[in-house]
């Protein structure tokens, strides 16, 4: 950095910096990954198709696809499909859909046309196999025939070095023949396994992942894509570096728990490069800290438990932190991208507060969500001096700061719906909404927003003492926007809808699924921390214009928060609304 500030050029609008961008920028400057016909930055997102993606995966997607976008590179979507027993087409489909919904594409405009970078580890089964034979021939791998128990016992632990397998010095030719027999289906699951031999003393390596890691195992299992062609399947630690290298990945970004796997990653690619399988430079692995979000669990296994035990209605339940759940809840891709930018990437583990994600959503929706009126807990209001059968239009901007979004209209009639909480029989101090006259004290004066000023004249009760209607009189010359209407000074201003034309709709008031900020930390029983109020369903009355709402349309219901028409249960003319988030954070004080 120059000390002479005067000579410093004005900074370009900088991308938020982080250690990965710094590495990439230094690699771009040195030409570390410059290759003919290929971008200098190629990343990948490598999910295993064994479940639905969640908000943690969104961080990895935004990071990998975002780096590729920002440095004119490309990002591959690669299914890490080497565990045939757990993987299904349903998961492949939803993962593709989620990545696209988040706003990313694996297509890349290459020198000779668009390339589709949707890959599968299973595309490389033949090559992976050939490389394994090469490792055996070179003395870098052997077939181990120990029982699973012996193998585990001989692996040692962090404080005890492992013991060599009695099969470790099996002649290469014998290992090769046995490996071919494994492939030919001559053995049962678990009878033998292929292990790497990184060095003579690898079993005493302080890094457990270097202690003769398994690279192939026998699994007589049908695979979604390769069918019954294989009964041996490569292990993740073996498949991953090779897939990266075959796809010319430059920066292989993963979460911190893979740090201890990096020495094997590097060893494998160097060893195979020496054998002529890859050209240098080979990909490099970099680790970042995973997303931990308060009030949320991101373990696939535990999310599956919520679905299986019917705690939620499915993977796309709007309370789920899955991408399909967030989408159905009403989250926008832009809000999730903004969130991922804002939390950044670091190498230190920590917790991000749920309010950060919700804040990004409000920030995204506030300028673009049309406003609408919804009465969620209805109480009848009767305007006693307004003639029955009469009706007049009131208007209001669709968005207070965007006149170009136009006006909306709704009728004023004798009977209206207001919120239950907008009337108090005996008002508390500072309460400016409706309360009745007492003695010679008149009832309160309240403006019905975008309509008239009214004065409370009384109320009705049923035999249980429940208030069933509020009675008011209106002032004819007080209509909002008409000359002189502002001579009425009132402190209360409330929303309402006409009972004659209101749309009755189911509204689902969602809240956080757990009451504990770290529901599963330290092995806690997360089911004990379920929020009993995570869903409340109400029958609400909405302004009549809401009848035409299409699924996925989002609104701000004034005073209540942001809502979306549910994409699954809404029907033409009969939308069902989900509360995405309230207007203000009500959790921070708890
Ligand atoms: P599994 O236990 O099934 O392996 P996983 O969450 O690691 O679960 P993958 O399909 O392997 O699932 O994940 C794909 C990618 O998403 C990986 O590169 C992984 O590091 C990343 N990822 C997963 N969870 C998070 C998280 N909470 N924050 C950031 N990245 C994550
Ligand atoms: Mg994983």
UniProtKB/TrEMBL annotation:
Subunit: Monomer.
Record-stated family: Belongs to the class-I aminoacyl-tRNA synthetase family.
Residues at which ATP binds: 48-50, 255, 290-291
Gene name of this polypeptide: glnS
Alphabetically ordered keywords of this record: Aminoacyl-tRNA synthetase, ATP-binding, Cytoplasm, Ligase, Nucleotide-binding, Protein biosynthesis
GO-annotated biological processes: glutaminyl-tRNA aminoacylation; glutamyl-tRNA aminoacylation
Reactions performed catalytically: tRNA(Gln) + L-glutamine + ATP = L-glutaminyl-tRNA(Gln) + AMP + diphosphate
Molecular function GO terms recorded: ATP binding; glutamine-tRNA ligase activity
Lineage: Bacteria, Pseudomonadati, Pseudomonadota, Betaproteobacteria, Burkholderiales
GO cellular component: cytosol
tRNA synthetases class I (E and Q) anti-codon binding domain segment(s): 494-566
Uppermost EC category: ligase
All residue ranges annotated as the Glutamyl/glutaminyl-tRNA synthetase class Ib anti-codon binding domain in the record: 369-474
Coiled coil: none
Entry keyword Zinc: no
Compartment(s) where it occurs, according to its Swiss-Prot or TrEMBL record: Cytoplasm
EC number(s) reported in the record: 6.1.1.18
Domain Glutamyl/glutaminyl-tRNA synthetase class Ib catalytic: 41-366
InterPro entries per UniProt: aa-tRNA-synth_I_CS, Gln-tRNA-synth, Gln/Glu-tRNA_Ligase, Gln_tRNA_ligase_bac, Glu/Gln-tRNA-synth, Glu/Gln-tRNA-synth_Ib_cat-dom, Glu/Gln-tRNA-synth_Ib_codon-bd, Glu_tRNA_lig_a-bdl
Protein name: Glutamine--tRNA ligase
Major subcellular location class: cytoplasm
Residue numbers binding L-glutamine: 80, 236
Annotated source species: Pseudoduganella aquatica
Annotated TM spans: none
Motif segment ('KMSKS' region): 297-301
HAMAP family attached to this UniProt entry: Gln_tRNA_synth
Record Pfam families: tRNA-synt_1c (PF00749), tRNA-synt_1c_C (PF03950), tRNA-synt_1c_C2 (PF20974)
């Amino acid at each position: 950095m120059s000390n002479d500030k005067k000579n410093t050029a004005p900074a370009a609008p900088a991308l938020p910096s982080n250690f990965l961008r710094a590495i990439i920028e230094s690699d771009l400057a040195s030409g570390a990954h410059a290759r003919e016909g290929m971008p200098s930055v190629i990343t990948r997102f490598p999910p295993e198709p064994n479940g639905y993606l969640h908000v943690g995966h969104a961080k990895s997607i935004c990071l990998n696809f975002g780096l590729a976008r920002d440095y004119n590179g490309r990002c591959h979507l690669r299914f890490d499909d080497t565990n045939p027993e757990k993987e299904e087409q349903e998961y492949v489909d939803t993962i593709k859909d989620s990545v696209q919904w988040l706003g990313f594409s694996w297509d890349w405009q290459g020198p000779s046309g668009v390339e589709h970078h949707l890959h599968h580890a299973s595309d490389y089964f033949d090559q992976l196999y050939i490389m394994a034979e090469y490792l055996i021939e070179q003395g870098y791998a052997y077939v181990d025939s120990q029982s699973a128990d012996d193998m585990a016992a001989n692996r040692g632990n962090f404080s005890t070095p492992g013991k060599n397998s009695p099969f470790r010095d099996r002649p290469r030719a014998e290992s090769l023949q046995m490996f071919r027999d494994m492939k030919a289906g001559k053995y049962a699951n678990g009878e033998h396994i292929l292990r790497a031999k990184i060095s003579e003393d690898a079993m005493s390596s302080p890094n457990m992942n270097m202690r003769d890691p398994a690279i192939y195992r026998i699994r007589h299992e049908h695979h979604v894509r390769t069918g019954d062609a294989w009964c041996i399947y490569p292990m993740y630690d073996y498949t991953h570096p090779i897939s990266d290298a075959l796809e010319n990945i430059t920066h292989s970004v993963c979460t911190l728990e893979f740090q201890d796997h990096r020495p094997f990653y590097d060893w494998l690619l160097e060893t195979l490069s020496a054998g002529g399988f890859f050209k240098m430079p080979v990909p490099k692995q970099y680790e970042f800290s995973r997303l931990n979000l308060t009030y949320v669990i991101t373990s696939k296994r535990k999310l599956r438990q919520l679905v299986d035990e019917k705690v939620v209605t499915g993977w796309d339940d709007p309370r789920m932190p899955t991408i399909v759940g967030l989408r159905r809840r009403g989250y926008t891709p832009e809000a999730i991208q903004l969130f991922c930018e804002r939390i950044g990437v670091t190498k230190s583990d920590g917790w991000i507060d749920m309010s950060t994600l919700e804040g990004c959503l409000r920030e995204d929706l506030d300028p673009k969500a049309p406003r609408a009126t919804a009465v969620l807990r209805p109480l009848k209001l009767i305007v006693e001096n307004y003639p029955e059968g009469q009706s007049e239009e009131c208007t209001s901007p669709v968005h207070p700061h965007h006149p170009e979004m136009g006006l909306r209209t709704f009728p004023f009639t004798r009977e209206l719906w207001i919120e239950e909480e907008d009337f108090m029989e005996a008002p508390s101090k500072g309460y400016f909404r409706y309360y009745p006259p007492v003695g010679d004290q008149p009832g309160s004066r309240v403006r019905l927003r975008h309509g008239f000023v009214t004065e409370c004249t009384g109320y009705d009760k049923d035999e249980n003492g429940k208030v069933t209607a509020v009675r008011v009189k209106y002032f004819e010359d007080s209509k909002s926007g008409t000359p002189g209407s502002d001579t009425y000074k009132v402190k209360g201003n409330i929303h309402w809808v006409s009972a004659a034309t209101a749309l009755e709709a189911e509204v689902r008031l969602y809240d956080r699924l757990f009451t504990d900020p770290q529901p599963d930390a330290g092995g806690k029983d997360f089911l004990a921390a379920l929020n009993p109020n995570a869903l409340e369903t109400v029958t609400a009355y909405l302004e009549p214009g809401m009848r035409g709402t299409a699924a996925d349309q989002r609104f701000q219901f004034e005073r209540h928060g942001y809502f979306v028409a549910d994409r699954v249960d809404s029907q033409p003319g009969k939308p069902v609304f989900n509360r995405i988030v309230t207007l203000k954070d009500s959790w921070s004080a708890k």
